[in-house]
Amino acid sequence: MVTASTSRGSAPDPAKRIRLVIWILLGVIVVAGGAWYAMLTLNKPAPAPAPPAGAGPAGTEQLVRTDSHRLTTPAVERAQLVEFLDFECEACRSIHPFVEELKQEFGDRITFVNRYFPLSSHPNSGTAALAVEGAAQQGKFEAMSAKMFETQDQWHGKRESQGPLFRTFAEELGLDLAAFDATVAADATKERIRADMADGTALGVTSTPTFFLNGEKLTLTTKQDFRQKLAAAVK
Fold first, then answer.
1. What is the pLDDT of residue 46?
2. CA–CA distance from 48 to each of 125, 196, 200 (Å)?
3. Are the beta carbons of 125 and 142 closer than 8 angstroms?
4. Do β-strands 79-85 and 69-70 pair in parallel, antiparallel, or remain unpaired?
5. I need a labelling partner for 95 at 20 to 30 A (CA). Which of 9, 19, 21, 198 fits?
6. Predicted pLDDT at 61
7. What is the Cα–Cα distance from 133 to 206, expressed in whole angstroms?
8. What is the pLDDT of residues 187-201, one digit of tens each?
9. CA pair distance 55, 78, nearest whole angstrom
10. Using an 8 Å Cβ cutoff, are 118 and 125 in contact?
11. How would you class 118 by CB atoms within 10 Å of its CB: exposed for 0-12, middle for 13-18, buried for 19 or more?
12. 147 with 137: CB under 8 angstroms?
């Protein structure tokens, strides 16, 4: 019979020690992998909401949502121009003044719509979108959008967060800063921007600016070509 003293005096089994170390390592890997997966999930755009029954083709619903920012409200709409944009995108900034010209020229017949599409290659594009949406909730979407493009050279490409700078823009626009801060920090605001990104991705948007005229993705070569397409759409 094996006595208690004999059991206590036995040397630990090396094979058992090795198995224990292996199980501990596997546990660490699983936990780390789960944390990394959670981080990736949080950084993904939210899936596009399913269109309600009778809403028509999914593409139509994904182009313009109820909460999309409509910059013009023509009495009789002849066409819709939807732009997916990124406020850190130099091409978006470059074309912005021309889009403003087109808005003045065709805004009485075309509904101009802006959608968020911050690109991962631009470190502060998401922060800029949050700030613009914070201003939008106080009726200053266009004013903050213009401010972002006007000042883009100051913050474009910087790795550190430009949130504090964007907050000074909100102050310059006379916004309620407490309300602005709350909107920027709200999960609902992040989801709002992710939903735009999900719609854009579903529609084939891969770069900015991307325009859709009456549901058709535009391939533009010149400003004149752009103007002619709008003119043809309202005839």
1. 40
2. 20, 8, 9
3. no
4. unpaired
5. 198
6. 81
7. 22
8. 999 999 999 999 999
9. 20
10. yes
11. buried
12. no
The answer to whether 107 touches 72, Cβ cutoff 8 Å, is yes
Which residues contact residue 193 at a Cβ distance below 8 angstroms, ignoring those fewer than 6 apart? 116, 118, 126, 129, 130, 133
| pLDDT value at residue 59 | 66
What are residue 103's phi and psi, to 5 degrees? -65, -40
User: What pLDDT does 60 receive?
Assistant: 74
Model pTM above 0.85: no
Q: Which two tokens stand for residue 101?
A: 């010209």
* Cβ-contact 38, 194 below 8 angstroms: no
Residues lower than pLDDT 70 in the chain: 1-59
Q: How far is CA 68 from CA 19, 30, 134, in A?
A: 57, 41, 14
Written as six digits, the tokens of 160 are: 């550190």
3-class SS string, the chain: CCCHHHHHHCCCCHHHHHHHHHHHHHHHHHHHHHHHHHHHHHHCCCCCCCCCCCCCCHHHHHHCCCCCEECCCCCCCCEEEEEEECCCCHHHHHHHHHHHHHHHHHCCCEEEEEEECCCCCCCCHHHHHHHHHHHHCCCCHHHHHHHHHHCHHHHCCCCCCCHHHHHHHHHHCCCCHHHHHHHHHCHHHHHHHHHHHHHHHHCCCCCCCEEEECCEECCCCCHHHHHHHHHHHCC
End-to-end C-alpha distance for the chain, whole angstroms:
102
